[in-house]
Amino acid sequence: MSIGQNIKNLRKANNLTQDQLAEELDISFQAVSSWERDEYKPETDKLIRLAEILDVSVSSIVEEKQDSFKTKKAIYNWEHMKTFVKVSAKANKLSNTLKAVDFALKAHEGQKRKRSSIPYIYHPLNLACHALSMNIVEDEIVAACLLHDVVEDCDIKADALPVNDEVKELVLLLTKEDYTDENRDKVLSAYYKKIGKNPKAALIKCLDRCNNLTTMSWGLSREKIFRMIKETEKFYPGLLDVVKATPEYNNAAFLLKYHMESMLDIYKRLL
Fold this sequence. Notes:
By secondary structure, the chain is mainly alpha-helical. The chain has 15 helices and no strands.
């Protein structure tokens, strides 16, 4: 497709009229129309602004698209993941995990992943399955994977969780307090420092980041993707070192680092 067709398709995907896009760019709608008809091409400054408004990379606008790929936001069905976690928990006598599955399902009921129709429970189930697939069959870790966002996102107190004190402590460590743009760095630095003192919490947080990295292409704006990349590079090497330093998590550390750094490199190249 041509630059003009790319602009037209991206404009429509963002539910913008030519008039609305022109107003954002401080130009006439005739100029936008001429771009879309491939009569003229946007100048560099307008092209950069256009990419910002449409929340895409400049290359997404200027490169000719040879093929159209089908994409999917969820790889596994969340109900299948729930069954896998429950079967694994029963087989390995993970009592906290069994309680946590049903509690998390109820707590996150009706919630969706950002900018999608995917049930939120997909995310904590993904973490639990990820841990189990790496042969981390520790009741407290898997249960905390399932409950890690409950206190932060569901207005539920840690004391109300149907699990032992260690799981509650892990969930509290993983619960981030609200922050503003002004105090964001201070809050995050304290948050990651606290997590880094507990190898189990560090492991769960790395699992959490891996899953969030795989979904941020459709779940976050372009600006927030840049922020996520910078945050990951700043705080997660330290967490990975904590995980790696714990002998029973050494293999997991290798896989998590590979997953995380591969995803970051892919995003950087595409952005």
